[in-house]
């Protein structure tokens, strides 16, 4: 018709102008890009027919059916299991968007309304794709409907669990996200599944460009921020008994955290289905083997249907962090020497991540990338989220060393650090004493996502650095190894400046040790001087000066010479830790 001719004419004129302006000096690919951009800007979707044409085209791209109402103002995008109804006025302007699943009344979807009002067809198409994915389930339509009802029942229980937690604890948005039984729940909307936000690092709470604190509310947490999981149902080779009705009975919690009581699983509220619920991580995440086993134990369902390929956990954490920094889907290669640099105010750090160090039975700490976690009951979600949070906190600390910074390795003032795993939840950071020339280390034990226990180990004659409590407070505030190491060094410098008699104190401590008196001051390698149990399994000193193994069953058990008290520096460490001197002869002689 006439409209089509006008459109073709405008396009021809546009092409001529572009040709005259750019063809002489621009390569063909760049010209082609300009043509596409210009064509898109010219082809604004404004009329009713243009809008319905575009909607039907998007439906075809997603392998969905479509048809118009007799008036031409309603466009229906359809499948066997759901349909989307787009209501327009005679001028092609949006009136409403509704989604209906099989057996349900259509309900307005605010997200889809917003996308189409803004002519954001790509996001609208992603929602359609999400709806299609939701029903990629085994069996006929009747079986798929049962699976959808099971998912709905789970969603209702999880929503109630969040509300009961908040009612019992008066938690705000951030507290609900970090500590809530099911995190911060965002309801299913269009093709977006229910999501549970469960972990943010302190740096996630800062605006990327300005570093201003984010003011989080229930409705403005970006889906990509921090760690979150979406809740879905997928077909499985095994059959599981899944609820087809909400299982929470009443609204009276069983404790002061809002934990609900659940109905007993029976044949009337659950059915056998060739499917399982899944928590799908917003980004695939490295987990240690022990943490993967803990998740399987919590649900009695293995996380992986077949055994996964294992890799050194630190290598996986590094690759995951580099991928996040580069905002790409391609896994970047690990630097062959696992060495990274951090530029901080007044300090330049070099970190060697010694992920190949043997942790148990001569093996390095192993892990695998987890993208989804199976479960079958709403009561299992809090247990799984706590494990996810725990691993996320550990990963957050290790990845804080990972930067794409390049510096001159021979530059003056470069401070060397080695990060070495001890167990699946603890590690040591070794460095040269800020005042003496000995080697000291900080052991960080990630107890859970809310607690990191820190202990400083040094020779008894070494100068005071700082207290364990100081280190712990810094870690809790920043969850960053480089920031913590900078704070330790600055604190040591402050103590040195405020203590003119420091050398005298050091001599006094040395004399006390030689006389077999317990040294005072900062904690030392002597675990006997530390309060409480030995959570790290580090060796203590018993019966004089003989180092002994220690620690809980399954933890590392070191025994032998005093060098076992120090992080295991392998031959590969020498290049990156060339400036770090070994512990002084004086310190060694105290135990030999």
TrEMBL record:
Keywords: Activator, Nucleus, Transcription, Transcription regulation. One of its GO terms (biological process) is positive regulation of transcription by RNA polymerase II. InterPro entries: Mediator_complex_subunit_1 (IPR051999), Mediator_Med1 (IPR019680). Its main location: nucleus. GO terms for cellular component: mediator complex. Residues 42-403 form the Mediator complex subunit Med1 domain. The keyword Transcription applies. It is found in: Nucleus. GO terms for molecular function: nuclear retinoic acid receptor binding; nuclear thyroid hormone receptor binding; nuclear vitamin D receptor binding; transcription coregulator activity. Residues 537-559 are annotated as: Disordered. Residues 540-552 have a biased composition (Gly residues). Belongs to the Mediator complex subunit 1 family. Component of the Mediator complex, a coactivator involved in the regulated transcription of nearly all RNA polymerase II-dependent genes. Mediator functions as a bridge to convey information from gene-specific regulatory proteins to the basal RNA polymerase II transcription machinery. Mediator is recruited to promoters by direct interactions with regulatory proteins and serves as a scaffold for the assembly of a functional preinitiation complex with RNA polymerase II and the general transcription factors. This is Mediator of RNA polymerase II transcription subunit 1. It comes from Takifugu rubripes (Japanese pufferfish). The lineage of its organism: Eukaryota, Metazoa, Chordata, Craniata, Vertebrata. The gene is med1.
């Amino acid at each position: 018709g006439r409209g089509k001719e006008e459109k073709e004419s405008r396009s021809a004129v546009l092409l001529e102008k572009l040709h005259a302006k750019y063809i002489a000096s621009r390569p063909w690919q760049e010209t082609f890009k300009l043509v596409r951009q210009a064509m898109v800007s010219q082809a604004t979707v404004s009329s009713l027919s243009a809008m319905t044409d575009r909607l039907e085209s998007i439906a075809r791209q997603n392998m969905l059916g479509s048809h118009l109402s007799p008036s031409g103002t309603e466009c229906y995008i359809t499948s066997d299991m759901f349909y989307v109804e787009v209501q327009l006025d005679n001028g092609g302007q949006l009136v409403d968007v509704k989604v209906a699943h099989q057996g349900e009344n259509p309900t307005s979807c605010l997200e889809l309304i917003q996308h189409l009002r803004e002519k954001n067809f790509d996001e609208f198409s992603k929602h359609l794709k999400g709806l299609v994915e939701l029903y990629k389930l085994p069996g006929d339509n009747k079986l798929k409907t049962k699976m959808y009802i099971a998912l709905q029942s789970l969603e209702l229980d999880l929503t109630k669990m969040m509300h009961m937690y908040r009612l019992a604890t008066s938690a705000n948005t951030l507290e609900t996200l970090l500590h809530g039984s099911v995190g911060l729940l965002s309801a299913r909307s269009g093709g977006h599944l229910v999501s549970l936000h469960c972990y943010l690092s302190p740096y996630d709470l800062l605006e990327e460009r300005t570093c201003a604190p984010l003011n989080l509310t229930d409705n403005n947490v970006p889906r990509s921020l921090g760690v979150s999981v979406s809740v879905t149902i997928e077909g499985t080779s095994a059959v599981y008994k899944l609820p087809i009705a909400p299982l929470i009975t009443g609204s009276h919690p069983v404790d002061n955290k809002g934990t609900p009581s659940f109905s007993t699983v029976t044949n009337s509220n659950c059915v056998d289905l060739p499917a399982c619920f899944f928590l799908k991580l917003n980004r695939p995440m490295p987990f240690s083997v022990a943490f993967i086993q803990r998740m399987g134990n919590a649900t009695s369902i293995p996380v992986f249907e077949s055994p996964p390929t294992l890799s050194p956990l630190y290598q996986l954490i590094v690759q995951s962090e580099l991928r996040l920094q580069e905002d790409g889907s391609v896994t970047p290669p690990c630097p062959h020497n696992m060495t990274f640099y951090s530029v901080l105010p007044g300090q330049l750090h070099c970190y060697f991540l010694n992920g190949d160090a043997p942790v148990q039975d001569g093996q390095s700490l192993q892990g695998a990338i987890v993208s989804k976690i199976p479960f079958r009951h709403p009561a299992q979600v809090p247990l799984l989220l706590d494990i996810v949070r725990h691993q996320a906190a550990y990963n957050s600390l290790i990845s804080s060393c990972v930067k794409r910074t390049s510096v001159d390795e021979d530059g003056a003032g470069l401070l060397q650090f080695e990060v070495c795993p001890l167990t699946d939840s603890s590690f040591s950071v070794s460095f040269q004493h800020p005042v003496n020339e000995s080697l000291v280390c900080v052991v960080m034990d990630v107890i859970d996502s809310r607690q990191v226990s820190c202990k400083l180990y040094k020779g008894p004659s070494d100068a005071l650095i700082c207290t364990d409590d100081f280190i712990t407070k810094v870690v809790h505030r920043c969850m960053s190894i480089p920031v913590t190491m900078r704070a330790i060094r600055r604190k040591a410098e402050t103590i040195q400046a405020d203590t003119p008699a420091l050398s005298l104190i050091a001599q006094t401590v040395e004399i006390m040790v030689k006389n077999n008196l317990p040294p005072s001051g900062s904690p030392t390698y002597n675990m006997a001087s530390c309060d409480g149990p030995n959570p790290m399994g580090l060796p203590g000193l018993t019966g004089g000066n003989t180092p002994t193994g220690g620690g809980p069953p399954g933890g590392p058990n070191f025994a032998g010479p005093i060098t076992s008290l120090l992080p295991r520096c392998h031959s590969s460490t020498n290049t990156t830790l060339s400036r770090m001197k070994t512990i002084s002869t004086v310190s060694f002689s105290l135990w030999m």
